[in-house]
Design goal:
Layout: H1 11-20, H2 33-57, H3 66-74, E1 87-92, E2 101-104, E3 107-116, E4 119-124, E5 136-137, E6 139-140, E7 150-157, H4 165-177, H5 185-193, E8 198-205, E9 212-219, H6 227-237, E10 255-260, E11 262-274, H7 280-304, E12 313-314, H8 316-323, E13 329-337, E14 344-345, E15 350-358
Parallel strand pairs: 9-10, 11-15
Antiparallel strand pairs: 1-4, 1-7, 2-3, 2-6, 3-4, 5-7, 8-9, 11-13, 12-14
Helix pairs in contact: 1-2, 7-8
Length: 359
């Protein structure tokens, strides 16, 4: 009996196997009748194997493409988080009309509500992370009498792109390990993470007595959220004017309070040996970016951790290893974090923020 065909068999392998079954007394060279009769059939078999393998891959969540993964996850009540629009603070020299529109580069923004005199919440009309990227001078789309100054000054609620396929796949598999139900930890994490602008949450029970729940959130840019985002999350989960009544996503009798993640300033002193012709001024901007990128990785780690009671560790070795890859750095040693040559373990409700960096 012939060996079964492997799904990843190549055209060349299959053709060789077929020709080996033909008696060597016959002409099997390329261009012969036997070769020309066998080759097209082999190509068809390879195409069939590709189709079968694709069908098998689409049958299992670990290899499904986005379309079929979404269909599979829907059986568990899951779907990708949708893209959202960013909300930003605008500063004007006068009170502008609600609904007035402005542009910055190739993006447009609309005024939603007033915060204070000359300060307004604007929403980017384009969905996704792109709305978080620009700050600066706004140009009114329609003339506004007396307007001489208009600036986007701060991202209040970050916009998000649609959930990435691999992130969604991981969330699908995680759903089998931790079932969200009736206000348990997984339920809070799932529902709070759905709130526009929220990138992660930690949950603490009985933080202020029986029946109380503390939620500590980070925004979708993995930075400390604004008070507006915190208030928005509070309203969704358990409105302050009716706490415990079950009018939000929290179960009745759960008194939930939402807090922003704390930021711990980390001052860094570097002892750098420079390559010839380099000095601190030449590498400073690159050093700051490397540190910021590392701290963002730690913030993401904080957001994705399953242990809500453990803080992230700022490691000297990680900082030094990354800085060694910067052009102009020959060596680095004896780095100090907040005055000491030791790692810093942050508390469970904090993420690191770059303080002063001395090179």
């Amino acid at each position: 009996m012939a060996n079964p065909i492997e799904l990843d068999a190549t055209y060349e392998d299959l053709l060789e196997q077929k020709l080996e079954e033909v008696d060597d007394s016959l002409d099997k060279r390329e261009g012969s009748i036997i070769f020309n009769a066998t080759a097209p059939n082999t190509a068809e078999i390879v195409q069939m194997l590709v189709t079968i393998k694709a069908f098998i891959d689409e049958s299992f969540a670990d290899t499904q493409t986005r379309e079929y993964l979404i269909r599979r996850a829907a059986e568990r009540g899951l779907k990708p988080y949708e893209a959202t629009k960013s909300r930003l603070k605008g500063a004007f020299n006068l009170d502008v009309p609600i609904g007035s529109r402005y542009s910055l580069d190739n993006l447009n923004y609309v005024v939603l509500e007033q915060i204070a005199v000359g300060e307004f919440v604007l929403e980017c009309e384009t969905i996704g992370n792109v709305g978080n990227l620009l700050l600066g001078t706004l140009i009114p789309i329609e003339y506004i009498d007396g307007l001489t100054s208009a600036e986007l000054v701060e991202v209040l609620v970050p916009g998000e792109d649609e959930e990435d396929t691999e992130v969604f796949r991981a969330r699908y598999f995680n759903s089998f390990e931790s079932t969200a139900f009736g206000g348990n930890r997984a339920d809070y994490k799932e529902k709070v993470r759905k709130i526009a602008g929220v990138g992660g949450v930690r949950v603490y029970r009985a933080w202020n007595g029986g029946g109380t729940v503390k939620l500590v959130i980070i925004d979708s840019q993995f930075e400390k959220p604004t008070q507006i985002l915190v208030a928005s999350a509070q309203e969704v989960v358990d409105p302050l004017d009716s706490q415990g009544d079950g009018l939000g996503t929290a179960p009745i009798d759960h008194i939930v309070t939402v807090f922003a993640v704390n930021e711990t300033l980390i001052d860094i002193v570097l002892n750098i040996t420079y390559q010839s012709g380099w000095d601190w001024s030449a590498i400073e901007s690159n050093v700051l970016k490397v540190i910021d990128d590392y701290f963002k990785e730690l913030a993401i780690e904080w957001a994705e951790s399953e242990d809500d009671n453990t803080g992230v560790v700022v490691r000297i070795s990680q900082i030094e290893t990354r800085l060694l890859n910067i052009a102009g750095v020959l060596d680095i040693a004896n780095t100090k974090l907040n005055g000491d040559q030791s790692n810093i373990l942050l508390d469970a409700e904090s993420v690191p923020k770059r303080g002063a960096v001395i090179g």
